[in-house]
Design brief:
By secondary structure, the protein is an alpha+beta fold. It is built from eleven helices and eleven strands. Helices cover 34% and strands 16% of the residues. Strand 2 and strand 3 form a beta hairpin.
Length: 371
């Protein structure tokens, strides 16, 4: 009727945050949240239960969208725009827009067993999880080579978009196991494989990188470290958890697995890895109780042999910014705590004539042995 404002119902979407088949929390698009299993919340997601004030509702929704958005590739990733164009997704710039992309494929990831569904959906984790379902090698051509194609299967999106980093990469299933293929140019591939071979001469839990090829070009290949039994949480995500729990993240890590932390600093110095930011190291999580077991396997060496022209190396990224150290200082300190733990000789022929790299490696190794 003219002059009369018609009341219309306002509808809200309610999401269930899932950990495998366990419902961890529900949250709607107003920010109203109910937490059912607080010990199983994602480490990087902070929610408040049954609160009605505006600030809490706003923060709940903001935090939820930020967590969802973190499960989509970043646009500085090589070929990111081609990937998004190929799946018909927008080149999203806000957390809410990016969250909608992740929510379109249930926020699935190969890093853990979290996922999201709408309250009305009856789908189960067994039907859609990426460890058991829907992987297809087709999407690798977009991820590794930037080729345009049309893809209808939403699950192919998550197979690749949930993997962080700036180099071209894609997941491939071989013989029932999942492998990560990484490109980035000949030197990036060669450096990662050489660094991995060196690190295998020391006692440390680590991802093994081997030579492979894709469409006739070289790539590095590594087996998936996560599973239905174990997930990984980055140091960045754990820091968020530690702040919310009023705990010291580094003290906890050193108490849990100081050996792996110190070996990480030793090996990064020896191979000149300058990319050990807080997103590519962290904790191995047991899915049965969502508790840390140790640091996850050492990974990501395609930026090895950088800042390799001086014995000091680059600034170390794994120490507190309040007490900066170069990589040599951090490695020397690590050797005092755990020793060098070398198990076999590093051979000169592995460097394939790159004499300057071999000489610097030997120089750094002698520094750690003699101090």
């Amino acid at each position: 009727m003219d002059g009369v404002k018609e009341d219309r119902p306002v509808y809200f979407t309610t999401y269930h945050l899932m950990h495998g088949d366990r419902t961890v929390a529900s949250i709607d698009t107003r920010g109203r949240c109910t937490i059912f299993a607080p010990d199983f919340l994602p480490y990087s997601l902070y929610l408040e239960d049954n609160m009605e004030d505006f600030d809490t509702l706003f923060n709940n929704l903001t935090n939820f969208y930020f967590w969802c958005a973190s499960r989509v590739l970043t646009l500085d990733r090589t070929y990111a725009k081609e990937i998004l164009n190929s799946i018909g997704a927008t080149q999203a710039s806000t957390d809410k827009e990016r969250a909608q992309i992740a929510l379109s494929y249930h926020c699935l990831s190969l890093m853990d067993i979290y996922w999201v569904k709408e309250r009305s959906e009856t789908i189960s984790f067994h039907e859609i999880n990426l460890f058991e379902n829907h992987l297809d090698n087709t999407f690798a051509s977009v991820s590794l080579r930037g080729k345009q194609m049309t893809i209808q299967n939403q699950h192919l999106i998550a197979d690749d978009l949930s993997t962080n980093g700036s180099f071209p990469k894609a997941w491939i299933r071989k013989g029932g196991d999942l492998y990560l293929l990484k490109d980035g140019g000949d030197y990036a591939v060669e450096n990662e494989i050489l660094a991995s071979r060196i690190c295998q001469c020391f006692r440390c839990n680590q991802v093994i990188y081997t030579q492979d090829s894709f469409e006739g070009l070289p790539v590095s290949s590594s087996k998936l470290m996560t599973s239905l039994e174990y997930s990984i949480v980055s140091k960045e995500a754990f820091d968020i958890f530690a702040i919310n729990q009023d705990m010291n993240a580094m003290e906890y890590i050193l108490d849990l697995d100081g050996y792996s932390y110190y070996m990480m600093n030793i090996l990064d110095y020896l191979v000149g890895n300058t990319d050990r930011h807080w997103g590519n190291w962290g904790l191995l999580i047991r899915n049965a109780d969502n508790q840390p077991v140790r640091l996850h396997d050492l990974m990501d060496f395609n930026k090895a042999f950088s800042a390799y022209d001086t014995v000091e190396g680059a600034n170390c990224l794994t120490v507190s910014p309040e007490h900066p150290q170069n990589q040599m200082q951090t490695a020397l300190e690590a050797v005092k705590h755990v020793g060098l733990n070398q198990t076999q000789e590093v051979k000169e022929e592995w460097f394939q004539g790159r004499t300057e790299l071999y000489d610097m490696f030997q120089t750094r190794l002698e520094i750690l042995k003699n101090n």
